[in-house]
Amino acid sequence: MAGFVGVLVSDPWLQNQFTQVELRSLKSQFLSMRDHGCSAGGLKLRDLAATMSELKIGGDGLSEAERASFLQESFPNLDDSVDFELFLRVYLKMQGQMGAKSSSSAFLKAATTTLLHTISESEKAAYVAHINSYLEGDGSLKKYLPMDPLTDDLFEKSKDGVLLCKLINVAVPGTIDERAINRKRVLNLWEKNENHTLCLNSAKAIGCTVVNIGTQDLAEGRPHLVLGLISQIIKIQLLADVNLKKTPQLVELVDDSKDVEELMSLPPEKILLRWMNFQLKKGSFKRLITNFSSDVKDGEAYACLLNVLAPEHSSKPSAMTMKDPLQRAKLVLEHADRMGCKRYLTPKDIVEGSPNLNLAFVAHIFQKRNGLSSQMKQISFLEAMSDDAQVSREERMFRLWINSLGISTYINNVFEDLRNGWVLLEAIDKIAPGVVCWKVANKPPIKMPFRKVENCNQVVKIGKQLRFSLVNVAGNDIVQGNKKLILVEHLEQSYKLSIRIFGVEINLVLFSAFLWQLMRYNILQLLKNLRLHSHEKEMADIDILKWANDKVKNSGRYSRMESFKDRNLSSGIFFLDLLSAVEPRVVNWSLVTKGENDEEKKMNASYIISVARKLGCSIFLLPEDILEVNQKMMLTLTASIMYWHLRRPAEDRSAASESENGSSSETISNSTIDDSASESSTDDSGSQ
Q1: Distance separating alpha carbons of residues 427 and 211, to the nearest angstrom
Q2: Which parts of the sequence are annotated with region: Disordered (predicted)?
């Protein structure tokens, strides 16, 4: 791939914040600024306010004075010279929420930085009330709760990471094994950092976007960043049931299988809007609600919705008869109180159209009383809800891995969201900078099907250039949503796996599918870069196996992994030995079981995942993957630990020289190497 040259940035994190098309555009803008009325000594920080305003670069809608104020607040010396990388950092900060790209899942993709570092006091108060309510019964949090919404309690008490880890477990129970959380009375800086690392990696594992936030931000309790993360976690919790799998009664919203396919592809907030309009229609409401801001700020939709869902709790005077929007909003919230709903917002928040709080309010109403029939329609396409569990897990891991790359589009459904080719091109661009020809790419929204095919044809072409195996695969297969070409269930023999999706039987045959190979390319490039830096040969899976066994043996322990499908791995002991070998203090052996029965094995598996994330491994596997000894997951879990170890500075590890990664993506998925690659390290003894 030496022929592809993109715009490269020395800082991998900074490179990850932009696609190549964005970097090329910003490079051109930077060169224009440098030549446009700068001081004699070259482009200085103090020049940026005027120059960026004149050329309309970054932070659209900001005045020159606002830009100047921001620069003065953010940088101590305005006489510093500006190179391209410093310009990128300034641009990134200036964009903040104002530059966040709108998408159907904007609440998860929203930037975790804001231009002037302002926060919404209403949101803070709502989230404090939420945390106080959902965590009040946790005896280990007595020193944290209750928090006062009128103070900075939320930010101060988040500084050690314990509260945030607990909140993640409320949102998605079981994400963090709480035995891995450092919880003693006084934590040192190292222990706090471990908690924050565990928090951020676990937040990614439930679908949060955390590309603009680091452990130091949490340790310092930076309000705009902490609030942004908490907002995402709480919304994931509130929207957890807004899908057909958790609430199959939602099928009542549609008429046929085609509509069900569309409904399954929608993000949760879009489904919530469709549900809301469905209920409003019952109340003869005339308007269509399309957002959680301007469309609900008059309170009329809420008044109608609550009367439809809970007419027994209505009161006189009716909210619908009120002419004053603020008074109507007050009556709406009183009605919600009588239903047992948490408020999440004030009458003023409704009138001002606060989108985050309105979304939270409607989501909670849905949780308490969705008004859908308990007698579901007996329609054959509901068979789609019983998809193979392994396929569902792998789809989840693909989705989380793609979202973790920091691309501009948030993925809700792998099969649907990748069909226009654009997301795949964005992902490729993150992993192999410069390989995508953006001049011929078609950006969404794409109405003409042949434009989607053009994108997907380029995806297939690049795959072949990257030496992926794509026999008889064409761009149109991706556009048509041919699941066997996007996600393949790898089996140990050449068998077929059949599942039913919308009543259609689909055979998932054994071959190297595109996403598997893209993930495989990602991790191998990361490890290859580290090993080349150490003047060693390219990495193969047998090297990963040997490295892991050598690390455990050299630490004085006796467990061994014969292959990545060694059934003994299900006990978890080998991975705990490996984690302890790379960082002796990270495993608390008093919490480890012998792994002799299923319950003990599951406890160890859960602990392994949290300890690995606590170290700094970005992984998306589930305990079931360890219990079942999923070959791919075992390989990539090991590779993630190896990658973390090799990236540590020389003074922090006993062997290997300092390795700094310069690749475009630091995220290692648990789904990054395919089965065929691991066969070389597999023998008969591993499949006992």
Answers
A1: 15
A2: 652-688
Q: What mean pLDDT comes out for the span 177-183?
A: 96
Give the pLDDT score at 86: 86
Residues in contact with 75: Cβ distance below 8 Å, sequence separation at least 6, in sequence order: 45
b/e code 545-568 from CB counts within 10 Å (16+ = b): bebbbebbeeeebebebbbbbbeb
**Cα–Cα dist 563/350, whole Å:** 58
Distance CA 663, CA 665 (A): 6
Token pair of 635 as six digits: 């390989």
Q: In angstroms, how far is CA 484 from the centroid of its own chain?
A: 24
Tens-digit pLDDT profile for residues 260-305: 777 877 889 999 999 999 999 999 999 999 999 999 999 999 999 9
Query: What single DSSP character describes residue 81?
Result: B
Give the model's pLDDT for residue 388: 55
- Percentage of the residues of the chain whose pLDDT score is greater than 90: 50
- Distance (Å, rounded) from C-alpha 276 to C-alpha 254? 13
Q: What is the 3-state secondary structure (H, E, C) of 408-443?
A: CCCCCCHHHHCCCCHHHHHHHHHHCCCCCCHHHCCC
- Contact assessment for residue 117 and residue 103, using Cβ atoms and an 8 Å cutoff: no
The two structure tokens encoding residue 452: 């989607």
Is the omega angle on the peptide bond into residue 267 within 30 degrees of 0, that is, cis? no
